[in-house]
């Protein structure tokens, strides 16, 4: 599985609009062989009569797949631009019991994924196509949470796409049905871990993070706050990514455990030191260490020993990593203000710097 820093948008350049996802299926569409895989059929309101005649003549047509594995639902979502009323047509076929639980393509995309990727066809702006498709796709699902939670080859559910592209409207359409249950399939990327790897300097994604945390609180799902994915909890993901807003929000609003060690013997503060003390790194470290704005009240478990004595399995302390990753002046400035007895703290620090 890809790491959070390298996960692509399912190999499609959707976010900047420079490439159409239709390129995924440009070749071998099979329209000559499958009568329902033909956009000319759906260009007027009489399509239902035409479809019914085809189905009467060829009963298997509704469930037939072209040579790329697409059934008629996949085909219609991808070609919505060329249909008279794509949402109405889609609804018609869903009510005809065309399967919705079949993925397509090398990226293992389900219809709900495609509806988000093929958002905004001609004539439908403001995400109405994706939101309308999502509503239609889910209205016949017996278990909506299961439908939202189906994953592509990279472990993304439908909710991961709007988080990645910062699309609040689609995000809000999906979130009420999303469930992150303890013991969820290991292949699924937990949504809280995922958003902590994203840039949360944007106010839209900040709002998403808060909504995800609030939903986890409402469902009393404490497990998700400390769920290890690729060996890292959400807080450690945020610290490693220097995601200041995520660190501050997780520490203030969630059930994260600040002193839990991973298999490397490291607590989150180790990763703050390993990430280096840039401006964002400073703010992450301060959020972890201090309970007050004056940096004079350390959090439980984060005392002098946690910085200067406690070692990970590489036999290094937090301070060792700090010395490797930042200028001595930055260490003096930061650590020298973190203890009520600043002179004692500085003396201890200088002892370790010798």
TrEMBL record:
**Which InterPro entries does the UniProt record give?**
Ankyrin_rpt, Ankyrin_rpt-contain_sf
Pfam families in UniProt: Ank_2 (PF12796)
Instruction: Give the domain of life.
Output: Eukaryota
Q: Which SMART domains match?
A: ANK
Q: Which UniProt keywords apply?
A: ANK repeat, Repeat
Q: What is the name attached to this protein's record? A: Ankyrin repeat, SAM and basic leucine zipper domain-containing protein 1
């Amino acid at each position: 599985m890809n790491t959070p820093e390298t996960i692509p948008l399912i190999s499609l350049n959707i976010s900047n609009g420079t490439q159409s996802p239709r390129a995924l299926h440009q070749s071998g569409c099979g329209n000559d062989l499958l009568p329902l895989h033909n956009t000319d059929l759906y260009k007027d309101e009489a399509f239902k009569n035409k479809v019914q005649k085809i189905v009467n003549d060829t009963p298997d047509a509704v469930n037939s797949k072209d040579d790329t594995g697409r059934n008629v639902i996949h085909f219609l979502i991808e070609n919505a631009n060329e249909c008279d009323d794509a949402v109405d047509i889609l609804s018609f076929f869903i009510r005809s019991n065309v399967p919705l639980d079949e993925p397509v393509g090398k990226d293992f995309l389900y219809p709900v994924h495609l509806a988000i990727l093929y958002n905004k066809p001609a004539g439908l702006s403001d995400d109405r196509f994706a939101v309308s498709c999502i509503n239609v796709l889910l209205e016949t699902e017996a278990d909506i949470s299961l439908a939202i939670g189906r994953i592509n080859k990279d472990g993304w559910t439908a909710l991961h796409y709007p988080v990645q592209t910062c699309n609040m409207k689609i995000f809000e359409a999906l979130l009420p049905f999303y469930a992150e249950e303890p013991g969820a399939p290991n292949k699924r990327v937990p949504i809280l871990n995922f958003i902590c790897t994203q840039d949360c300097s944007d106010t839209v994604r900040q709002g998403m993070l808060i909504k995800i945390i609030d939903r986890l609180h409402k469902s009393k799902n404490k497990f998700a706050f400390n769920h290890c994915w690729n060996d890292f909890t959400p807080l450690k993901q945020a610290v490693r990514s220097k995601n200041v807003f995520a660190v501050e929000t997780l520490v203030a609003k969630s059930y994260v455990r600040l002193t839990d060690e991973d298999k490397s013997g490291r607590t989150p503060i180790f990763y703050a030191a390993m990430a280096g003390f840039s401006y964002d790194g400073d703010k992450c470290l301060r959020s972890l260490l201090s309970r007050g704005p004056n940096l004079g009240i350390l959090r439980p478990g984060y005392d002098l020993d946690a910085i200067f004595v406690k070692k990970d399995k590489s036999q290094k302390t937090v301070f060792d990593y700090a010395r490797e990753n930042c200028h001595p002046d930055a260490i003096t400035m930061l650590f020298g203000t973190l203890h009520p007895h600043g002179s004692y703290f500085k003396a201890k620090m200088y002892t370790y710097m010798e």
